[in-house]
Amino acid sequence: MIICPNCGHENKPGTIRCQACGASLTGGVPLSTRDLPSEELEAEVSEVAEVGTATFRHRLLRLVVVGATDPITVQMSGEIMLGRRDPATGEVPDVDLTPFAAYRLGVSRRHAVIRLQGDHLEVMDVGSSNGSFLNGRRLVAQEPQILRDGDELRLGRLSLRIYFE
Question: Are residues 84 and 132 in the same domain?
Fold first, then answer.
């Protein structure tokens, strides 16, 4: 097997480009964030009704990547970074979305943070290349927004459902 230097995916011998992220397997520099056309990002905007509570009591957060089978469960105590692994530096965010085709879907290495603030959670885009969307609305970089149980968070084109447990 050939391990992708960009995302860590195991590829079949003889493969020239990673099947997960498209990076070259014949050497070269790891990929930077894939820039997505703005019309492609805006075309996917869909309003999601705010129906859940904003009160976060149990400190357990479940992130469900749309289309994936297993959720990501996080014990919240402060702040978590969402993004993808950086093979050049070895840096890995708290929630590594690399296995979910994060590069192909336009997720930055350091894309967004979720922060515990008292009895609620806030999400903030940290200046990502392709932006973050909360319930279909683009987030302004560096401006935190309150998360609610059941919200949809989109990083580039990768969609997550947020559940409080």
Answer: yes
Task: Tell me the torsion sign for CA atoms 65, 71, 72, 75.
Answer: positive
Q: Which domain holds residue 108?
A: 60-164
- Tens digit of each residue's pLDDT (9 = 90 or more) over 16-64: 777 776 677 776 555 566 566 665 555 554 555 556 889 998 889 999 9
Determine, yes or no, domain membership for 73: yes
Tell me if 127 sits within 8 A of 93, measured CB to CB: no
Count the domains in the chain.
2
Element (H, E) at 114: strand 112-117
What global pTM score does this model have? 0.73
Q: Let me know if residue 95 belongs to a domain.
A: yes
Residues 163, 152: Cα–Cα separation, whole Å? 9
If asked whether residues 96 and 143 sit together in one domain, one would say: yes
Q: How far apart are CA 127 and CA 29, in angstroms?
A: 23
